[in-house]
Specification:
Blueprint: H1 7-13, H2 21-25, H3 33-41, E1 44-50, E2 56-62, E3 69-72, E4 75-80, H4 88-95, E5 98-104, E6 111-121, H5 124-129, E7 139-151, H6 154-159, H7 176-184, H8 190-203
Helix pairs in contact: 7-8
Length: 206
Amino acid sequence: MEFVTTRDELRVIYKTPRPTDASMRKELRALDGHCRSFIGKSPFVLIGSADNAGNADVTPKGDKPGFALVLDDRTIAIPDRPGNNRLDTLENILLNPSVGLLFLIPGMNETLRINGDARITIDAGLRERLAVDGKQPQSVVVVSVKAAYMHCAKAFMRSELWKPDSWYDRATLPTLGQILSDQMAHAETVSDFDRSLDEAYSKTLW
């Protein structure tokens, strides 16, 4: 198998059509009203990061719509709720602040992409603003925006992501407990795995 290794080789493959003027000009250096509105309605964001050796990670963050707080036209605050404490993304940010964000709104095929630099804070005032039912996030990822732009709908149209009639019947898929039991060859039973996961879901979402 041969691989593309240079930008020139890549551009030969993708020589037509060339990027349109609009596709280049749509990239903003700050959040406009449309970006702020999109973030305010989004209940879900993917955060891409990498450490200083290039080891990459993508983590999902989901909460009530508007959970990511726009502090100003160049700054977004994303709360970190209870999780598995692997801290892959947070540790990456300490080594390499560059992140890529992809905000989604259910049922909308277009997405909002943001690139920037991230830092971690435990600022008391900000954590209080991001509290849910009195429960503050353990920390907050603050992203300084370098680029923001809307992404077209083609990937979501091809995948039919939001069409229920294209979804698998959940009952035909293994539970997470079944998957973990197989992958970890653990003595704990599938039902024990699923029961502990259900307990975590019910008690530690926030």
